[in-house]
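Support request, priority: normal
Reporter: lab tech (M.K.)
Component: structure prediction queue

Hi team, I submitted a job for Tricarboxylate transport protein TctB from Paenibacillus pasadenensis yesterday, and the status page still shows it as pending. I've pasted the exact input below so you can check whether something in the sequence is tripping the parser. The sequence length should be 156 residues. Please let me know if I need to resubmit or if it's stuck on your end.
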Amino acid sequence: MNRIFDRYAGVAFLLVGAAFVWESRKIGESSYGSNVGPDIFPMGLGILLILLSARLLYETLRGRMTDAASGEKPRLDYKRFGILVGAALLYAYFLEDIGYVLGTFLFLLLGFQVIERGRWLVSLLVSALFSFGVYYLFVQVLEGTLPGFPSWMNLG
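Reply from support: The job had stalled in the queue. We restarted it manually and it finished. Here are the results:
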């Protein structure tokens, strides 16, 4: 990557993340009796953006990234990119029909296998733990709502 571009991108995303956090404080805290209000997602997104941009700035300033002047041209992998974009679109389209847990599990499993083939056991475990963990955390702990399982599975 180009260090100059990464530096400017890091600063820009840091400012956008700070704006998300700042403006999310103006949104109402709770709606419809849920403990999870509409301010949670933008604030979480802003915090995540701040953390990722801080990491990008750190890596850029430490000089671990290769310059564009080094002569290496990055290899573009359109096949993997297309598979992941298609999977993301299918995931979003069928989320309510197949539920969050099953949909997220399948999407993550496919994504892990597209990125790195093999290691099925690790992919299965991480996909399952993430899907069930996030569902439990959001629905049980934060008392939010997500489409859990499809109705044809009779699991809830």
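The chain has five helices and no strands. The helical segments are 3-24, 40-62, 78-98, 100-115, 120-141. Let us know if anything else looks off. Ticket resolved.
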